[in-house]
């Protein structure tokens, strides 16, 4: 899966919290959201809008709103791929302490067929 396919797939499945997502799908979308966030922040600071909306600029806030649901959905599907519940994403709330195991799980290899569905054979998971 490449960058473009991953982003399109994540936006098409923005309300699908069941099923599975491979490492490439999750991490490409994560990179896309990061790049988009940096670009929105630059636009906000250039236009002098970075003081509005409680510390975030208007464009940054709009990007965060637009990518929140797709990010939660692909994160849930990625955790399902590692045979964990999508509710484990709540560890993002526990700063640093919760981030460490969550990042390790999100970066781990896909599990074989589990209760969340069948494992799709992906080239990135064959490493």
3D structure, described in words:
- By secondary structure, this protein is mostly helical.
- 54% of the residues lie in helices and 0% in strands.
- The chain contains 4 helices and no strands.
- It has helices at residues 3-12, 23-47, 58-81, 99-107.
- α1 (3-12) crosses α2 and α2 (23-47) packs antiparallel against α3.
- Mean pLDDT is 87; it is low at 122-127.
- SSE string: HHHH
Strand content: under 5%
Low-confidence sequence ranges: 122-127
As a percent range, the share of helical residues equals 40-55%
What composes the largest sheet? Answer: none
- What gyration radius follows from the Cα positions, in whole Å? 16 Å
Overall pLDDT score: 87
Query: Structural class of the secondary structure composition?
Result: mainly alpha
- Categorize the overall geometry: globular
Total helical elements: 4
Q: What is the strand tally?
A: 0
- How many angstroms does the end-to-end distance come to? 14 Å
Quick recap of the structure?
The chain is mostly helical and 127 residues long. The chain contains four helices and no strands.
Spell out the key features of this protein:
127 residues; mainly alpha; 4 helices; 0% strand
How do the helices and strands line up, and which of them pair or pack?
Layout lengths: L2 H10 L10 H25 L10 H24 L17 H9 L20
Helix pairs in contact: 1-2, 2-3
């Amino acid at each position: 899966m490449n960058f473009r396919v991953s982003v399109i797939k994540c936006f098409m499945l923005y309300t699908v919290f069941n099923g599975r997502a491979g490492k490439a799908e999750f991490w490409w979308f994560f990179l896309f959201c990061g790049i988009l966030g940096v670009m929105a922040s630059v636009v906000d600071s250039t236009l002098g809008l970075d003081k509005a909306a409680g510390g975030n600029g208007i464009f940054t806030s709009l990007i965060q709103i637009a990518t929140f649901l797709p990010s939660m959905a692909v994160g849930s599907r990625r955790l399902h791929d590692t045979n964990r519940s999508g509710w484990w994403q709540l560890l993002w709330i526990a700063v640093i302490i919760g981030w460490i195991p969550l990042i390790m799980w999100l970066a781990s290899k896909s599990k074989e067929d589990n209760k969340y569905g069948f494992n799709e054979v992906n080239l990135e998971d064959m490493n």
